[in-house]
Amino acid sequence: MRTTAWLAAAVVGLLIAGCAGFGSAPSQEERLALAPTGKLRVALYTGAPASIVQGATPNESKGVGFDLGKDLARRIGVSFEPVVYPSPGAIMDGFKNGEWDLSFFGPTPERESVLNFTEPLLVIEHGYLVPAGSNISTIDAVDRPGIRVGAPQGGSVNASLKHALKSATVVASPSVPAGEEMLRSGKVDAFAANKANLFGLSDKMPGSRVLDGRIGVDEVAIALPKGRETGMAYVRKYVEDAKARGLVKAAIERAGLRGAADK
């Protein structure tokens, strides 16, 4: 408990220090581009250390997107409003309805058609989780006839699966946390996602294993809707500053994120 409290305090300290050292406040035009409603609505998806892991109260929530989104709102000078969805695909549905201002996830062809992205904040391996007792021991063994692979609806791992799987069948999951029930019930034989999410699921499933190797990578960046280019220069500078000052590293440690990869 003391370690958790110390780590949370350290993250807050780093974020405050970063706020003090980051250039100037945004111009009025930049602020309007980033937070047109007067608050920064940050789209996040639940159960993902790179996005948000919800706590019993908002103050107990954590995640790279959650911590950095909150810090970015403070720097802009507006209130922070996390808009939480069950999956990355649901985030894109929310985008169509104008429900959020920016998000933390990686580029895909669908997303890049309507969103602009910063440079990545971090890169996470894509892989597979198999349940206890599974006879699947390598990533190559997943691609066999009759094997069912769960994957979060709209998640970037689906692009990796198109290249990795020729014989196995992909089964859409409504969310990352739903992967646990799909594996336990035998609805799927393996679950695919970025490894940060897989390790989180594995912690809840004794005997389950995240397989060695990777089928791709997940880049986590800040995404803004096209048409808000005025705000892009500001968030690009923010990404550079957050990495240089250790804010990204601190958020990763507080979220307990595992599976980060070299580019």
Describe the fold and architecture.
- The chain has ten helices and ten strands.
- The chain has 263 residues and is an alpha/beta fold.
- It folds into two domains: 2-122 and 218-255, Periplasmic binding protein-like II (D-Maltodextrin-Binding Protein, domain 2, 3-Layer(aba) Sandwich); 125-216, D-Maltodextrin-Binding Protein, domain 2, CATH 3.40.190.10.
- Strands 1, 2, 3, 4, 5, 6, 7, 8, 9 and 10 form a ten-stranded mixed β-sheet that branches.
- The longest helix has 20 residues, at 2-21.
- The chain is elongated, with a radius of gyration of 18 Å.
- Mean pLDDT is 91; it is low at 1-7 and 16-21.
Whole-number total of structural domains: 2
Name of the CATH superfamily of the largest domain: Periplasmic binding protein-like II
CATH architecture descriptor of the largest domain: 3-Layer(aba) Sandwich
CATH class of the largest domain: Alpha Beta
Cα-atom radius of gyration: 18 Å
What is the CATH fold-level name of the largest domain? D-Maltodextrin-Binding Protein, domain 2
The amount of helix comes to 25-40%
End-to-end gap: 34 Å
Order of helices and strands: HHEHEHEHEEEHEHEHEEHH
How would you name the oligomeric state of the polypeptide chains in this document? Answer: single chain
Derived from helix and strand composition plus strand pairing, the structural class reads alpha/beta
Sheet with the most strands, sense and barrel status = 10 strands, mixed
On the 0-100 scale, what is the average pLDDT?
91
In terms of per-residue confidence, which ranges show pLDDT below 50 for 5 or more consecutive residues? Answer: 1-7, 16-21
